[in-house]
Amino acid sequence: MLHTAGEGALAHPAGQPEVGGRRIAPWAAIVPAAVGGLGATAFWAPVLLSWFGVGGSAGFSGGGWEVLARVCNAPGMLWGPLVLVLTYVCYVRRC
Predict the structure, then answer these.
(1) φ, ψ for residue 22, nearest 5 deg
(2) 81: Cβ–Cβ under 8 A, 6 or more apart, which residues?
(3) Residue 76 to residues 19, 33, 92: CA-CA distances in angstroms?
(4) CA distance linking residue 39 with residue 55, whole number of Å
(5) Maximum CA extent, the chain
(6) Tens of pLDDT along 45-83?
């Protein structure tokens, strides 16, 4: 049997997660993930806005330091939107 990406035999074990003998609702994961994704996006938004000159900005002694700071901060700024995308995929597949 062929599986699409991420749907191997280990992805769907025989025993489904249960609490008190009942299946866990998808909303128990979707709601906290959406709140966390929005929170991470809001946390990093001022950094992204400062790149475009909105609000305060850190002063760098050289262009290389500014590039290094942007490269190091980019994964953090992508975290919230990526969590939101994965949350939406979970919502579409499970609900």
Answers:
(1) -115, 155
(2) 37, 41
(3) 33, 16, 25
(4) 20
(5) 61
(6) 998 888 888 877 778 888 898 889 889 999 999 999 999
